[in-house]
């Protein structure tokens, strides 16, 4: 991923955390919510 845009990488990470939340909302919701927000807020 050397040529990947930083914004794209952050978006993909945010999506990855969202998938974890959706798979088990009760257990993973609070655990990954902040990570999702941090990745979507990065420039």
Essential attributes:
single chain; 43 residues; mainly alpha
Amino-to-carboxy terminus distance: 17 Å
Helix content: over 70%
In DSSP terms, counting alpha (H) and pi (I) runs of 4 or more, how many helices?
Answer: 2
Strand content: under 5%
Radius of gyration using CA atoms only: 11 Å
The number of strands is: 0
Structural class: mainly alpha
Largest sheet: none
Structure, described:
It contains two helices and no strands. The chain has helices at 6-23, 25-41. It is elongated. 2% of the residues are buried.
How is the topology of this model organized?
Layout (H helix, E strand, L loop, with lengths): L5 H18 L1 H17 L2
Give the structure's gist in a few sentences.
The chain is an all-alpha fold and 43 residues long. Helices cover 81% and strands 0% of the residues. It has 2 helices and no strands.
């Amino acid at each position: 991923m050397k040529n990947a845009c930083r914004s794209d990488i952050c978006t993909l990470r945010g999506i990855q955390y969202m998938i974890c939340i959706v798979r088990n909302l009760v257990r993973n919701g609070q655990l990954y919510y902040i990570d999702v927000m941090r990745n979507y807020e990065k420039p």
